[in-house]
């Protein structure tokens, strides 16, 4: 009897110990971890910025230098574990070099990874002018002078959204064909590298002397209520006069000359009325600017 009791006691201890080390069951569906798809990355002056857009999964990031070859998977090294909705910047990168990044979701509770996706990313320092000079000279031309640069291969200049041409490094390039109807010049110098990638644009705005250029009325505002129409525009220096025209059947019909920056008109029907306005200074008429008044 003593032997049987001793054996039963050992068996009971074994059962209790086994129950004590048993872990909570894991649902089979939890092992099916999805591919990481909500990944955003960007190149900046610090390195490669990686964003984990997942709501639930940590992003496991590895990186390999492209020079090791595609099939040398041993070249992948751990870079970071990025929590959901967090950003990591990989600063250990070299300019103008290709890297392969391997991304996997990681489920820490069961220490399991999703299948991997691989993206090839080329890191390059942001392309920008270290030094550039943009000037508006003699109220008639824009000049752009980019300094010599190892990063910028060429500079494309646009003026008021229209391509003006290329400014070469170390050479002052001037552009004479400027917009004739605008009192403001918006000059953008866009740098490109040798792979034709665009960089950070440099912008400069200039206010022109409208009294010498004799530009048409600027910033015309049209207000219409029913058939009542009011036109207003910016006041000019030296109190010029303004010609008002209406375009009908492709022809401009002179309506009235005014000496204030306001014109009232009553339309005859519900159709749009197409106006043209010109500035008159020292008996010289500027080019016309067109505006429409519709219900």
TrEMBL record:
PROSITE patterns xref list = PROKAR_LIPOPROTEIN
Q: What is this protein called?
A: Uncharacterized protein
Q: Which organism is it from?
A: Candidatus Mucispirillum faecigallinarum
């Amino acid at each position: 009897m003593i032997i049987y009791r001793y054996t039963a006691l050992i068996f009971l201890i074994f059962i209790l110990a086994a129950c004590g080390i048993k872990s909570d069951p894991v649902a089979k569906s939890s092992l099916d971890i999805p591919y990481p798809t909500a990944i955003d990355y960007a190149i900046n002056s610090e390195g490669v910025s990686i964003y984990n857009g997942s709501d639930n999964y940590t992003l496991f990031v590895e990186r390999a230098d492209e020079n090791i070859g595609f099939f040398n998977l041993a070249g992948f090294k751990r870079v970071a574990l990025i929590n959901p909705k967090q950003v990591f910047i990989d600063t250990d990168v070299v300019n103008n070099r290709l890297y392969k990044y391997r991304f996997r979701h990681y489920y820490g509770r069961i220490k399991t990874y999703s299948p991997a996706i691989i993206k090839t990313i080329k890191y390059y320092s942001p392309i920008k002018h270290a030094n550039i000079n943009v000037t508006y000279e003699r109220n008639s031309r824009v000049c752009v002078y980019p300094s010599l640069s190892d990063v910028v291969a060429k500079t494309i200049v646009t003026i008021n959204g229209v391509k003006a041409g290329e400014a070469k490094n170390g050479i002052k390039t001037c552009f004479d064909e400027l917009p004739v109807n605008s009192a403001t010049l918006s000059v953008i110098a866009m740098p490109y590298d040798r792979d034709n990638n665009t960089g950070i644009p440099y912008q400069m705005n200039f206010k022109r002397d409208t009294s010498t250029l004799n530009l048409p009325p600027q910033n015309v505002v049209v207000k219409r209520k029913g058939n009542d129409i009011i036109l207003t525009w910016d006041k000019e220096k030296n109190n010029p006069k303004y010609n008002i025209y209406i375009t009908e059947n492709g022809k401009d019909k002179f309506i009235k000359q005014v000496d204030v920056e306001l014109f009232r008109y009553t339309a005859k029907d519900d159709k749009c009325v197409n106006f043209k306005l010109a500035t008159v200074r020292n008996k010289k008429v500027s080019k016309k600017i067109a505006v429409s008044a519709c219900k």
